[in-house]
Amino acid sequence: MDGHTIQTAELNADGRDEVIAGYRGQGHSVDSYYAEHNAGTRWSKHILDQGGMGAAACAVADLNADGRPDIACIGTAGANLKWYENLGR
């Protein structure tokens, strides 16, 4: 995997930012990482997209005005744009 984009944003209303990372090349994906409560430096990974997006760049914004930040990524090889709606779960 070729890490190509990184953002931070408060996605899950726990008061701490999560890390959003986009990877391109073989094994491309978009993942978010969050620090577990009371776990010190242990991080958990949440896969947003496995193999569907070789993310060259991602941005975080509330795209549908529901009060939750969403993630949008653009790919280079596929020339695609994807919106990952934050459903608040």
How would you characterize this protein structure?
- The protein has strands spanning 2-9, 18-24, 29-35, 43-50, 55-61, 70-75, 81-84.
- By secondary structure, it is mainly β.
- The strands form 2 sheets. It has a 4-stranded antiparallel beta sheet, with no helix packed on it. Strands 5-6-7 form a 3-stranded antiparallel beta sheet, with no helix packed on it.
- It is globular, with a radius of gyration of 13 Å.
Key terms for this structure?
89 residues, mainly beta, four-stranded antiparallel β-sheet, three-stranded antiparallel β-sheet, 7 strands
Q: Sketch the topology as an H/E string, one letter per element.
A: EEEEEEE
Q: How far do the termini sit from each other?
A: 28 Å
The residue ranges in which pLDDT falls below 50 over 5 or more consecutive positions are none
What's the number of extended β-strand segments? 7
Shape: globular
Instruction: Please compute the radius of gyration using only Cα atoms.
Output: 13 Å
Number of helices: 0
Strand content: over 45%
**What summary fits the major beta sheet?**
4 strands, antiparallel
Q: What structural category arises from helix and sheet content?
A: mainly beta
Placed side by side, the strands forming the largest sheet appear as 1-2-3-4
Helix content bin: under 10%
Mean pLDDT: 89
